[in-house]
Amino acid sequence: MITTSGLTKVYESRGRQVTALDGVDLHVREGEVFGVIGQSGAGKSSLIRCVNLLERPTSGTVTVDGVDLTALAGRSRRAGKDLRRARSSIGMVFQHFNLLSSRTVKDNIELPLEILGVSGAERGRRALELLDLVGLADKARAYPGQLSGGQKQRVGIARALAGKPKVLLSDEATSALDPETTRSILQLLRDLNQQLGLTVLLITHEMDVVKTICDSAALMQKGRIVESGTVGELLATPGSQLAAELFPVSGAATGPDRTVVDVTFHGETATQPVISQLSRTYNIDISILGAAMDTVGDRQIGRMRIELPGRYEDNVVPVGFLREQGLQIEIVEPQDRPAPAEAPVLAKEGAK
Ligand SMILES: Nc1ncnc2c1ncn2[C@@H]1O[C@H](COP(=O)(O)OP(=O)(O)OP(=O)(O)O)[C@@H](O)[C@H]1O
């Protein structure tokens, strides 16, 4: 649904050049919620603004729903008109809502429809329908100043949906909200994604946002995408930074000559009793050093750090058994394990 290819953005600032995007290739599938996460200055805002051509890329292409927006971004009047039309299939939600304070909630939602030339009666009907969709049917005549932050963002989302877009871009939509309101707005975005088949591309600096609603994620650093994939693919990638942050597991070996293995469960494997099967089949004692279980984008996912007696060479067969069960397995090399001083209390007690 969204593809960027070699997307580059260089800003000229006080005679200096700042490369905000450095050849970004992004692929967002139809109907998924895709999160781009990165620290401040990584280039996230530049990316999302280039995707709907609010910012003109220095080079590279942006295709949304099969339309090459960069090809439409010429300076002629005709090109401008085509770009505006293509943009109507892209809604955008902002961190600070960007509502007009002098207009009622309903009139704010109608604004993009006015620009598209939709008739007054049709605009009013659509605005009320959208208010209902975001749970604010009773606020049509209120002004933005009379609403809470979460309600303002619901209006922002309704306005973004006015032109019946296929794609919703969200620029840190929950960063200005408290944790509970954040959860309700994320739930709304997820519901809209599922009810309307809406593709959502969001940028955030909060891993919790990715964990709560994303099907796929990309990690951005210094203008580049350094990791990208579905949550399942990321968890299956040895050494993935995103996977480690989504599911941090820790725990040190309880002694020398032990094999420490990180096991990732998802989908059906999350509910299978594989650890007890492993223990029974090979008659070995297994210690659990650390574990995390959670739901990511409606799927149950878990990670566990376990320890088997003996070196890896002695455990090739049991580790193979785990792999055969469809689990993702990563052997934790001794140098990657935390030093005993940092080990959790339980692991140290187990070593006694
Ligand atoms: N209009 C601009 N002119 C000059 N430099 C800019 C401009 N906009 C962004 N930059 C620079 O580009 C880089 C990427 O900025 P960008 O805002 O895209 O990052 P970000 O990941 O969204 O950060 P944040 O989360 O703080 O908004 C930064 O070094 C920033 O200073």
Helix percentage range? 25-40%
For the termini, the CA-CA separation is 56 Å
Structural class: alpha/beta
Number of strand segments: 14
What is the CATH homologous superfamily assignment of the largest domain?
P-loop containing nucleotide triphosphate hydrolases
Shape: elongated
The mean pLDDT is 88
Q: In CATH terms, what is the architecture of the largest domain?
A: 3-Layer(aba) Sandwich
The radius of gyration is: 24 Å
Per DSSP, the total helix count is 13
Counted up, domains total 2
Keywords: Amino-acid transport, ATP-binding, Cell membrane, Membrane, Nucleotide-binding, Translocase, Transport
Domain ABC transporter: 2-247
InterPro entries: AAA+_ATPase (IPR003593), ABC_transporter-like_ATP-bd (IPR003439), ABC_transporter-like_CS (IPR017871), ACT-like_dom_sf (IPR045865), MetN_ABC (IPR041701), MetN_ABC_transporter-like (IPR050086), NIL_domain (IPR018449), P-loop_NTPase (IPR027417)
Pfam families: ABC_tran (PF00005), NIL (PF09383)
How would you explain this protein's 3D organization?
The chain folds into two domains: 234 residues, Rossmann fold; 105 residues, ACT domain (Alpha-Beta Plaits, 2-Layer Sandwich). It is built from 13 helices and 14 strands. The strands form three sheets. It has a six-stranded mixed sheet, with helices on both faces. Strands 2-1-4-5 form a four-stranded antiparallel sheet. The site of adenosine-5'-triphosphate (ATP) has 13 residues, from strand 1, strand 2 and helix 1.
